[in-house]
Amino acid sequence: MEYFSPLLKIIVSFETIINYYFDMPDSLTTTDAPLLLQDFLPYRLAVLAKLVGAAFSQAYGERFGISNPQWRVLFALGRKPNCSASHVVQHAALDKVQVSRAVAGLIQMGFVARQIDTTDRRNSVLNMTEVGREIYDQIVPEALAFEASLKEGLSDAEVHQLDALLLKLVAKASKL
Asked: Global pTM?
């Protein structure tokens, strides 16, 4: 399955080459070592996240008309139905405003329903509707295929090493 539209691939590739791989001129004079953006780990992770997110959004955005935050909400609800928006915030790497907007859009599209929590009437719980579940069930195999294509060229040892390194970075970053 082709996840990269040719035009997006050209634009992203050109932007990546210009903005990432070519050294930026160092116009600041300092005695300290310069901060080279293309070597700065947070920047490199942000570039990777943007490239991966843009590529994966091709798999669901055009087909289902949902945004990146909306698919994350669906995936959080797929993992744990009957949960609060606060739970989605914790498990979808989104802030409260992003979750609120994504949920509102998903409710409007008929993919998610909000109900009063029967155990605590001050709260509400979110669930996918039948249509939302059908969309989710179609996106999951595409997500797994996308992940497999992203890992192509990496050995099993490299995949395990990458997973271990990402876990360490997440643990460290969450303590900062």
From this structure: 0.73
